[in-house]
Transcriptional regulator MraZ
Amino acid sequence: MALFLSTFVNKVDKKGRVSVPAPFRAALADQPYGGILAYRSLQGSWIEAAGIDRLQKFSDELEQLDPDRPEEAERYNLLSTLLGETFQLAWDEGGRVLLPQPLLEYAGIGEEAAFVGQGKFFLIRDPSQQRAIVEATVASRLETKRARDATSQAPSPRRE
């Protein structure tokens, strides 16, 4: 399975074509499909993408679920919706894919797209959204660390 790391920002042309970062294409080189599979994220207003192997695992899981069993119905519906809404995006000789208009609009992507590695998949989102998320995450972690450090350095109450 491919491993996607780091963040890359690439230009999106007027037709919606964008170059998939070379390290991401290299990670997918052994896949039977020459491109990426992309869908609207259910976690936020961005695109999630991966190689066909990841979506094949979702498909295999879906086949094992029984939609009539209450404990499996929610997962069945989630995977069914995800697979039904996935776009297969083949890359051209330059490593570009054409991001469909519904995905561009959903993610608010304009002239640039940030490709953000997430390990087994990656995100495609507006670079300003990516920067804001990173800054908020770092600020939150620093605040938590400062609070924890202040608590651990405070004198403990004396017992008499």
